[in-house]
Amino acid sequence: MLVIAPENSRELEKVRKLLAILGQSYQVLFTNLETDLGLGEASLVSLLTYTDPSSREGKPLFFNDLPVPAYWEPWTMGITTYIFDGQKRRGNIILRKDIQSRTVERVEWLGEGDTVLTVEDYNRYGWRSRQRLLEEDGQTYLEIYYNRNQEEVLHHFVKKGYFLYQTKSGRDQLYANEEELRRALLDKVLSGQEPLICLDSKVVPLLQELRKEDLIFCSPQQENLEDLQKQVKQILILNYYAPEDRNTDLHYVAGLVDPETMAFQAKALIMTASEEVEGLAYLVESLPGVDFHVAALTNMGPKLTNLNSFSNLYLHPNCSEERFQELLVSCSLYLDLNQGKEVLAATMRAIENGQLILGLDTTVHWGAYQKLPTVLTSGELLLEKIKEVLQSPEEFTSRIEEQRDVLQLARKEDLLTLFNCREEVAT
Q1: What is the edge-to-edge ordering of all strands in the sheet holding 251-252?
Q2: Dihedrals phi, psi of 141, to nearest 5 degrees
Q3: Which helix (H) or strand (E) is 386 found in, with range?
Q4: Would you state the pLDDT for residue 113?
Q5: Alpha carbon distance 378, 381 (integer Å)
């Protein structure tokens, strides 16, 4: 199966998770010019530059191994890392997200007055994949893409929009614009009959031209899809919609989990934009065997920080997206008890990660949750419900299945039927 996406996104991660639960093997093709790609990923550029298995061998380049002119050397002062020629700074080294690894993401080469003249990108396999030449105002006028042997493969003349592909045979190919490049490469890649999932509405007409009619399109929203419905076989909606708000012509896949693979952990998560969390102290004190994690995008007020004396309460102020995702994966319970607006669509993301939603009817953020038997009218009843869930893994699994039924979340068996039908049509 081939998944076509414009870029890495939360929607793509949802599709990846969905296919993993369904046991479907797949490849991802980005319709952009990305060069830093993992296994099973390709882009318009990598189809030309990652031409053999050795392209994906190696590890990120350690900053001290960066090739520099003779007598120059990389220097580092904590996070700040640069290239020094013995007298002045000649380049900035920008490290990859895992800063402690001290590996290179890109290098900014400097001219006079610290003006950046050239930017070089390094991929996760440790080799330079792209060079960007800049004008004085910082705008890119030429992008050069390299293969593992550091041969110039593709030139992108940014302002004029055209691409020059330099073949080994010497018969260079000119593409007038990115659309023409995309058309040529998709025509080559889509020669087979594998099922397609698309997240990029811009390429749907092109896929139709290439006779890829058995196409599944994935959208986070159900609105404004009338034209796409006429162009594709099926549309899957990735975000949650209450049953009464759904369109009968669409398939809703939010909340797909596999209870058989879920392991219960006595950890509860609350994401809040307010220090007002109903009954938090009462629950934390009454359930010493449960770890409570409270996260916020900002600093926290005294109503939360004053609870630090509880050993089973963990506060996460200024919580990053990465840390929030880690908490979603590690906690089995989500408590929808915070007053005020919901943050980061937290409850739906909790459901998508197999968490059980519990709360009070006065605090839950979606009307659909009012029907859940885990949403109660008082803190005392909520406490008893949590104790029931803690009794055994079977109780947790039973409540998860109950949640799926009430909210009408996606079922594995239904989606397997859908995908198997698609594969039969494709073959």
Answers
A1: 41-43, 27-30, 2-5, 196-198, 215-219, 234-237, 251-252
A2: -115, -15
A3: helix 379-390
A4: 82
A5: 5
What is the amino acid identity at position 4?
I
Cβ pair 83, 72 in contact under 8 A: yes
Half-sphere exposure of 57 (CA within 13 A, CB side): 6
pTM above 0.85, yes or no: yes
Sign of CA dihedral 147, 153, 157, 160: negative
Written as one string, the DSSP assignment of 287-314 is: -TTSEEEEE-SS---HHHHTTTT-TTEE
Sign of the torsion angle spanned by Cα atoms 371, 373, 375, 378 = positive
Which token pair is 377?
Answer: 């009218």
Q: Is 40 left (phi over 0), alpha (psi -120 to 50) or beta?
A: left
Phi, psi values for residue 112, rounded to 5°? -70, 145
Paired tokens of 280: 């938090």
Task: Please give the average per-residue pLDDT across 245-258, as a whole number.
Answer: 91
Q: Tokens for 215?
A: 């196409």
Q: What is the pLDDT of residue 393?
A: 83
Q: Record the tokens describing residue 340, joined without a space.
A: 């005020």
- As a whole-number percent, the residues of the chain with pLDDT over 90 amount to 82
Q: How far apart are CA 356 and CA 364, in angstroms?
A: 13
**Domains within the chain, CATH numbers bracketed:** 2-50+182-252 (3.40.50), 56-175 (no CATH), 259-407 (3.40.50.2000)
* pLDDT at residue 194 greater than cutoff 80: no
Q: Are 344 and 6 in contact (CB under 8 A)?
A: no
Q: Give me the mean pLDDT over the 252-274 stretch.
A: 90
Residue 49: name the closest of 118, 160, 127, 120 by CA. 127
8-to-95, 122, 175, 199, 261 alpha-carbon distances in Å: 20, 18, 25, 11, 26
Q: Which pLDDT score, from 0 to 100, does residue 211 have? A: 73
For residue 103, the Cα-to-chain-centroid distance in whole angstroms is 22
Q: What does the pLDDT read at residue 15?
A: 96
Nearest to 280, CA basis, from 205, 379, 181: 379
Q: How confident is the model at residue 368 (pLDDT cuts 50, 70, 90)?
A: very high
